[in-house]
Write a structure and sequence with these properties.
Blueprint (H helix, E strand, L loop, with lengths): L2 E5 L6 H15 L7 E5 L5 H8 L4 E5 L16 H6 L4 E4 L2 H6 L4 H13 L3 E6 L3 H5 L3 H12 L11 E5 L13 H18 L8 E6 L7 H5 L6 E4 L6 H22 L1
Bound molecules: phosphoenolpyruvate (PEP).
């Protein structure tokens, strides 16, 4: 199974979000093999998008969440609020929040813990900057992020865990990593996650690639066994591009089914 997550960032309001959700359902209609799709609209569109995707295979995700359940935290959104809207996935530690909004590993760790506590599934985003990559520190940085973000986090035994490897230099730049580089990172990420949570089973870990994925390059990532899916930002708010990404996922899954038969 491949997972496709659409991060609609702050690109679209309620009306466009509803239209996008409808378009995605239409693109999946009648397909025999369907990827696991999660869409992450802005907070203000969650409620309306939820109505569109109820009783479909598409799941609802949020782009962030605060670590306390209730209290005097003006402007923040809690797990309880998201649960009321049937949100089941939450992006945590997106590079735009780490780098533009000063989110620290400590804050990210508290958010991951709260996502687990509330029974939702975190999609933890990790990745190096262009400078760190140029210094040959990619592996070191991502390993450090995982250790710091999961420090003290109790892993609920039945939970799923999604990690999105998203090099910062690839996000929104049109310069995606190569599938080969992503595969190497994904193998390392799996190993580190297993070190951190020794009781986690292989099938509970899903490692996705994100960073300038679109209809033209999605298949090259999705055909790789080690790449469990893609997290798509800019292209996910352009319906034709997202339809191409979904078709690429279906093609990759058909290939997998063919190989195992
Ligand atoms: C993202 O927002 O997580 C992302 C990968 O963005 P883009 O696809 O636009 O690079």
């Amino acid at each position: 199974m491949k997972t496709i997550i659409g991060n609609w960032k702050m690109y679209v309001g309620v009306r466009e979000s509803v239209a996008l959700a409808r378009g995605m359902l239409y693109a999946l209609r009648g397909k025999k093999i369907v990827p696991h799709v999660v869409i992450c609209p802005s907070f203000v569109a969650l409620s309306d998008v939820r109505k569109i995707i109820t009783r479909s295979h598409v799941a609802l995700g949020a782009q962030d969440m605060f670590w306390e359940e209730t209290g005097a935290y003006t402007g923040e959104i809690s797990s309880r609020m998201l649960s009321e809207l049937a949100v089941s996935y939450v992006l945590i530690g997106h590079s735009e929040r780490r780098h533009s909004l000063g989110e620290t590993d400590e804050m990210i760790g508290k958010k991951v813990q709260q996502v687990f506590r509330s029974g939702m599934t975190p999609v933890l985003c990790v990745g190096e900057t262009a400078e760190e990559r140029a210094q040959g520190k990619t592996q070191e940085i991502v390993e450090q992020q995982l250790h710091q973000d999961f420090a003290g986090v109790e892993y609920p035994p039945a939970s799923e865990l999604f990690i999105a490897y998203e090099p910062r230099w690839a996000i929104g730049t049109g310069m995606a990593a190569t599938p080969q580089d992503a595969v190497v990172m994904h193998q390392s990420i799996r190993g580190w996650v297993k070190e951190i949570f020794p009781s986690i089973r292989d099938e509970q870990i899903h490692v996705l690639y994100g960073g300038s994925v679109d209809g033209a390059n999605a298949y090259a990532f999705l055909r790789e066994k080690e790449i469990d899916g893609v997290l798509v930002g800019g292209a996910s708010v352009k319906l034709t591009l997202m339809q191409e990404v979904l078709s690429a996922a279906i093609e990759a899954m058909e290939g997998e089914a063919h190989q195992s038969s």
